[in-house]
Amino acid sequence: MPxxxxxxxxxxxxxxxxxRLPDVPGTSVIDGSExxxxxxxxxxxxxxxxxxxxxxxxxxxxxxxxDRWTLKLxxxxxxxxxxxxxxxxHVPGYRLYPPAAIRRLARGVLRRGVLxxxxxxxxxxxxxxxxxHDPNERIELSDDHVTSIVGARRGPTxxxxxxxxxxxxxxxxxxxASDVLIRAGAVPTDATKLATVLGGTPESEIALPRTGxxxxxxxxxxxxxxxxxxxxxxxxxxxxxxxxxxxxxQARVATRRLRSxxxxxxPLLEQEAAARIRDELHWIGGLLGSVRDADVLIEQVxxxxxxxxxxxxxxxxxxxxxxxxxRAGHAELVHGLTSRRYTALVQTLVDASEVPPLAxxxxxxxxxxxxxxxxxxxxxxxVPRSVDRLEAEPDDPALHEVRKRAxxxxxxxxxxxxxxxxxxxxxxxxxxxxxxxxVLGELQDAVVGDQRLAMLVRDGRITGEAAFxxxxxxxxxxxxxxxxxxxxxxxxxxxxxxxxxRWLK
Length: 505
Known about the structure:
By secondary structure, the chain is an alpha+beta fold. The chain is 53% helix and 20% strand. A hairpin with a 5-residue loop joins strand 3 and strand 4 (67-80). The chain is globular. The relative contact order is 0.10. The mean pLDDT is 92.
């Protein structure tokens, strides 16, 4: 990972020029400064970065405290409790052009776009660092007076106040500061300085069609492809950084759902184009899956170490080796995400979200509802067929196949809320199928975990006490595996009730 990465937790406020910065009760000022910040923002002519909520700038501080490039990444999994948590990547480099290391992180968004300067923003900042009753609970309050240049003309001038967490667990103090500012006349805003200067944020690159029972076949396919592509691209930069397991998970889910929806909608699509997209999604999904599986196993081992009171040194030795494998898997993932093959896939998905690859003879303007019902029924029927083929004591691969079929049928049922208009009924069926998927997923996680731990022992990467502890963990996983085998028939019985599918007739 190039440069330095931080997670920014902040709240922003618009403020009139005559607002007097209020005191925050129960806090003390432990530091303060005055500085002028000059930032040049870069983007493509189509504003690719801004369309996905990201910004790229080179900023210099008058006191010499800053002279670097910063890429701010909006990450869906980090938007919680009304405040935005963004990853900030800082990279040194000449201000004449963004360095390659930082461009690579945004490649899935930029693709073939060429970066150029789009605005210069000068900020006269009065900064205060405040501490609460607990000195470790600290926030930073920045009172910014902003001037700007857009192209060859003067841009807007305005005042913005930012409240940012300096320490972990500062949410209470941020709430206090926010309440005081609002009472003083400040107005909460999600707008970045750049969005304010440019007059707003451009429309999303992927425009999802309106959903409902009157949706056309064309728009149904657009929605299925566009929503999956949106999830993939939104989590792409954080997946490249690699420190956010949730971003890896969401990007992987995006590839799986896309592949599943393309399979469900296969009769509506041009076969060669759909197959090519599914193959490429399988490739990048496999790279994401390797990292995701490592994240799951690391979390399981750490949790078992705590709850079972296993020797910390032995548990740590196992986690160290698993993290080494995770880093190797992530390096392969980044290599894949940086390739032309991947950027071509993303561009194909974005294009298909606007002009879907419908098969010859498919009338895209017709209502999707009748065809979609048939396609959902078809996807459902594959699940009981796979269950009926099971032997009395099915092996793990056979149960994994049931899980995959259940997941595809679940995703198909969730498409019903888009194009059939019976969301409640479809959600009940999808929920029961998700239960089947989850219990069989626990079984699969146990199988994968057991294999990986056995490999560490077999290859001599963990020995002695660590190998013994790995065996104990594997036994615990084996128990979870047995419990999942016992539980899945009950989950399937609940999912296969006829009343859940009456709406499909």
